[in-house]
Amino acid sequence: MRVLQVTNFYPPYWVGGYELIASWVTQGLRERGHAVEVLTGRGPAFARLGGIRGELDLGLDGLVEAYFGSGLVARDGLAEGLRRHVFSPRNFAACRRAIDEFRPDLVSFWNPAFVTFSPLLAARQLAVPALVHLSDTAANPFRNPHAPRFPRRLRGAGRAAVDALLRLSRPSRYVVPSVFLRDRLVAGESLPAERTVVLRWPVEPVASGSPAGARGGGRGGSRLLFVGTLIPEKGPDVLVAALREAACRCPDLTLTFVGDGPAQFVARLRDAAQGLAVRFLGRQDRAGVMQAYREHDVLVFPSVWDEPFAVVPLEAMAMGLAVVASRAGGTPEAVVHEDTGLLVPPGDPAALASALVRLAREPALASALAGRGSAWARREQGFPAFMDRLETLYASAVGEGSPH
Predict the structure, then answer these.
(1) Which 3 state secondary structure label does DSSP give 153?
(2) 357 and 393, same structural domain?
(3) Contact yes or no for 397/172 (Cβ under 8 A)
(4) Which among 144, 173, 259, 306 counts the fewest CB atoms within 10 Å?
C-alpha cells in the first residue's frame, strides 16, 4: 500500500498521544513494506527528516505553550478563524498536491484541529479512499470542551458547516480508540455506526519489546509516577492534593512528574507541592520515559476529563507498574478495577489518597495488579498485534475504494 498520513501535529512537535501514535504507525507500516508519506504543519525540524511534507497551513514552533497557554489565536479575525476551524483552501490544495505527487492508495487523517477536515475533501474529489482517526471527545471541534475561539454568534454556523464538510467528505471509516468514544460519537454526532470502528491504541513499540520483568516485584507502591502534559484536565493538581493527604499515613511515598505544560500552571503546581517528596523532570525523550517506568512502582493517571483511551496506562502496565486511574472516559476499558488496576472517581483527592495508601501498605496487591495488567497489555495491546489489525483495516478500506 501507499499511505498518505495527514495530521495537524507530528513529532518532534506534539502535545498528546495521537501524534506519537501516528508516528509509530508510519514507522510500523514502512517496516512492513508499505510506502508512507506524512503531510503535516510547518516546522524546521522536518527539513532533516525524510518522507515528511511540512506543508499544511500551521506553524508548529512553540506548540505546547501556544496550544495549552494562550491558544493558537486567529490574528486576522473572522477570515482566519474560518480558515483555521471550518475550511482551509490552503490545506485542501496542499493535500491535493500531495496526492497528485505521491499517488497514495489511502489517505489516513488523524486530527482536524487548526487545519480543518479540508484534506478529506481533497481525497474525496480525487477519488482516493480515506479514513479518519478520531481521538477527541467530539468529531466536530466546535463540540469539544475546548471549542475554537470563534465569535459567539457564529459558533452554531461554524459547527453546522464542519458537520456538512465531514458528510460531504464521506470517509470510508471512522476509527476510534474505545467503545466509550464510538458510542458517544454515534449517539451524539450521528456518525454512521456501520462505518465507525474501534481500534484501541497500542502499547508503545519500545515498551512492547522491553522485558516485562525488568522491575522487581514485592516492593509495594511507594514510588509514584505521573507521565503526561501538565494541564488541569490531566489532574496533576488533584494528585498533589492526594499525595499531601496520603503522605500523612505513608511518609515514604514519593512522586515524580514526567512532562511539561503551560508555565503558569506548572509554577502553581510546584508551589502546591512544596514540602512533599515531589520531583519535576520535565518532558523526556522516549528513553527517559522508559527509564522512569523502570524506576517507579505505581503509575497514577488522575485525569478529570473523559479521556477517550489513553496510551500512558497501557505503557505503564506493559512495563510492570501497578496503575491507579480515574473512572472516566475509555480508561476503564483497560484499567479494570481490582483486576488490572484500581479506579477512583475523577477529581476526588481523598479517594485517590486512599488508593495510594492501599497499594503502599499491600505489596502483594500491588504486585498482583501489576502482573495482571502487564499480561493483558502485552497480550491484547502489544504493538505488533495492533499493527496487524490496522494493516487489515487499511487494506479493507483500499479494497472498497472511495464511497460514492
Answers:
(1) helix
(2) no
(3) yes
(4) 144
